[in-house]
Amino acid sequence: MTETALIFGSLFGFTAVIFGAFGAHLLKKKLTQDLLNSFETGVKYQMYHAIVLLTLGFNLDTKSSIDTYITYAFIIGTILFSFSIYGLVISSAKNKKLKFLGPITPLGGLFLALGWALLIFKFLF
């Protein structure tokens, strides 16, 4: 599990930098300020959780099932939350909004919240 957290943390960090640059340089000219703010929110949350996964990866107990649940909650949450925002923003900019992605964003947020709640539980018990 530590390897999974480290790989996804590194991957999310790397792609957050790429997407952040993409948003700041290419999309800035093509998006409204509201869409650009949404895109930046996806990038921020992706980077925050990249850092969390890297921190967890270096500190996980490989025999603890709660650590597995925490890791997967953050991975799934980041993918659903950030990447659905990217899809919504880019499709909206092309006037072909992928409406099916709308409900996926809050589902991703729930997984992220679950990861944090499980982390609190781990620290308390």
Automatic annotation (TrEMBL):
UniProt key word Transmembrane: yes
Membrane topology: Multi-pass membrane protein
TM region(s), chain numbering: 6-27, 70-89, 101-124
Main localization (coarse): membrane
Subcellular location: Membrane
Keyword annotations of the record: Membrane, Transmembrane, Transmembrane helix
InterPro entries named among the record's database cross-references: DUF423 (IPR006696)
Similarity-based family: Belongs to the UPF0382 family.
Protein name: DUF423 domain-containing protein
